[in-house]
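My current task is to audit a protein record that another person submitted. I have pasted the whole thing underneath without changing anything:
***
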Amino acid sequence: MNMLLASTILFALLLLAVAAKVNLLLPLLAGIIMFGWMARQKGFSLREIAEMMISGTEGIMLIVQIFMLIGAITSTWMAAGTIPAIGYYGLKWMNPKIFILFAFLLSSFMSFLLGTAFGTAGTIGVVLLVMAKSAGVDANVAGGAIIAGAYFGDRCSPMSSSANLISILTGTDLYRNVKNMFRTAAVPFAASCFVYLAVSFFNPLSRVETAFLESMRMEFSMGFWAFLPAIVLFVSAAFRIHVKYAMGMSVATGALVAVLYQGETVKAVLKYVFSGYSLEGAGLLSEIMRSGGILSMINIALIVLISAAYSGILDKAGLMDQTEGKIRLWVEKAGVFPVVIAASLLASAIGCTQTLAIVIVFQIMKNQDVYMGDGRERLALDLENSVVVMAPLIPWNIAGAVPAASIGVGSLFIPFAFYLYIVPIYCMLTRGRAVGAKIEKDVV
């Protein structure tokens, strides 16, 4: 079995699993067995193959911890009134005439705080889309703005699992990467705001659901203390405290605020941390305020671990050697970033998950001359500016499919997720290397 056939089989299995709504762990495990068999055919023992998989997961336990903390943050912030307060004041101060722009900005802000596109879409994203539908705004346009904003933070938040994964894979400093990402995102973000502002004039909010806002105000206390968990996270990031400790302090703060300010019991808060927050009662608010918890993140954490095991097999068994040689020729002809873009599209389509796509692109690009030594920061930035934001643009990739399903739209949101297009296009246009120029002109 060659690499092309194995990749085709894996793609087919993943695509079938997505279509049939089967847990992606099953096709991913099948893929591990398939690539392990390929390594066995090359003469490696079962023990060596197992060691390859373990080596691939080295350092990835931090990502697993971050996923658990994301689940805990989401639930404790709900219990503390942090997410409801951000949503309440944001919606209250919103200008209905520029609703689409506002949806993008609020989703961007929330995703930067939470570090997760899934969590953003499942909380404030649901609220925004409900408002859009009730007021006659095109759901696909609103969905595109929401999901694009959700991936603003998924790309550049210190709490983001993808940002931490890329930092670990490339051996680079997380906060330096975040600084680089903000610099390269400034123009695309401003351009996206301009586009969403223009689109807003064609999709104004005809009315604001004041009853929904009132129900939020009645259910939660929304004074200063409700914002304290977010403030703790902001301050921790500003002082470059290790991300897992920063998130842990925010979880603890959220739990205290929930008990001392919102009137929750300690037992209830502990339950929220593990199994997720749920608001009792009927109505729209109780339907929306159901999210988070450590248990909700276990499946995706396992997907990350298995994807990391792929990395170990592909690397140590040399399964990507021929592909790397071809990539080197394409880089010489077209330039490194256009090749990264092409690889990102292909990996996102084949891998069906953002994590596996990141691992694949990293594996085939990491040994290119421009990325060796001091070029590791450049590799990290190129991955963030390509595969991280492009994976949601593939209709069957869960990076976009899951947030879309959680807010209640289909894949027709994709044409309106402008930020996800503008980032890679802008970075490709502004790279120092044009086709045929010297690679050394690239800068981080």
